[in-house]
Amino acid sequence: MTAWADILAANTGDPWKAFKTLEREADQVRAQHHAFRRAKPLIRLWMNDPDGDAGLVYVGRVDYDDTIRGAFPFKNNTVSQGVLELRDDHYLAVWLKQLPNNPELKKNVVITVDFYGDQKRWSGLLDKWTIKSKDHVKYLEVTFNDDLAFLQYLLCPPNPALPIPVLQFPRIFALAGPARWAISALIFINLWRVQSSIWSLPDDPFDLESWDDAIDWSDWQCHVKASPWLLDDSSLWTFLSSRMNPVDSVIADSLDDAQLTLTYRRILTDDGETADGLIGVPGGNVKNGALVFEVVDNSNATALEGTFFEGTILDGFVRSVMVYGGGFVEDSLNVVSGDQTLAPDEYYRSGWLATMAKQPWLVIRDNEWTPIESSDLSWGPAKNVAVVVGGDNPAADAIAKLIIETTGNLLGWLLLGGFSGAGGIAADVIMPFIVGTIAAWLHWKNTGRATQLGWVHYWELYQQGAENNSWSLAALSALRGGFLVGRAETVHLMALHDSWIIPGLHIDIGQRLGSTVLSKGVEHIIWVNQLEEMTCAWDNTSSPAPMSWVLKAGKSERAQSIGERMARLAKKMSEALNNVGVQLIQS
């Protein structure tokens, strides 16, 4: 940022000329921001190289004005679907329709949608296309799954370093550490497993270059960006475990608990981009279209200096620090009185637009002068005050069996003329009736929540995740998960059009923002939540709707429909059954 003294000196000390110079610079910045808001997204399709070489090949560009409709949502740690509608005779629509019957082409198609130049990018893999008809006019609807879906199709075996069909020891993969480091390490280990071709043939055994993928990672299609946790990782500690589960489900609770965000970006070397900070890829020279994951702390919720969790219009944001107590299961917020935290240096840098996690700045006010088309705020109090986890305790069962065998052997030796096998017989008879009954459950009550809710409240909730051992780190994680599911929730849904706010630049997924609601009784409150979803959508039909953004701040488990909850439960049940060797056969 140029100092006033420098501007004054450059204008021969004339304050009026210096002011006009400053005004011109400000107008240039306003014009740049206006151009960002008016910029149309760059939509491009890419395909795999028909020759089998690594890297994506450019297919073509879809002009924004030549689309019918489009919607591309960014969601926090959740896979989303982008939809693009094209006229039936569009050249890329014709190409997509011919794809199934063209043996020379690879079938997977990647889309990239760039906003504000290339500063914010949505990318995903083709899910399906559908030929539709409306008013006797045909058009093509193309659906893409965003690139977080790759982690749904990446398993975490008990030992990623061993061949899956031959040997998997130990029975469970377990990893503890700071959440950012642990999640990044788990993703990296399994990316290395599927892309290094150590225990399996490469996709093309006759391509000699593909045999060195274990040491030359520049050919990989997916990477993860991380750094040693001893250097800069102050995130909440977590425990990850898996038998043979998808990576996305293994890391989901840890991401939520530590309020971290898993980001992704496809590196387009055709545009001159490189991927800095990757292990094993000198200079970041990856193949065109390589996918890079990174776990980032956009919320700063668990950092030592704290962040903003609430505020009022009169007092502004209030800095609080999250404090853990009650066996690391319960958490509370301590307000920092006399906050002396300095504003990040980035906020003083000319051209800086983003939000720093430790001191968010963006507040969207709901009044007649702001461009909020619609605004819905919902709040719900906490639910359960206690959580039960567990269902088994191998250590207690082993001790009980030892006591039965020892007692039975002693009684048999004393009463049955030296017969010492009575204990084993008794254990075989008795143990089936008491397995999973002794110290098999863990019950925890959040007294602070109960006091806050009052005399009338819901009681308890059973949380999955510690069925194998009630006295384990997994049980601790499950207890926290049970309290998080029933926590108080605030969700603010805002639709913005032609706003001074630039989603993706001013604010991004996982970062905190404040918002107000012009409603009697709460008009003075600043609601502070993580940005969970932002969707860019447009409609170029006969009743056109210009490109606009819908922002959703705050997460609500209550918003899930019965079908969504049942689907989520069925997925967990299937994974649990697979862990004990039972395979569900789906028709």
From TrEMBL:
Record-linked InterPro entries: Gp28/Gp37-like_dom
Pfam families: Sipho_Gp37
Superkingdom of origin organism: Bacteria
Domain Gp28/Gp37-like stretches: 55-541
Full protein name: Bacteriophage protein
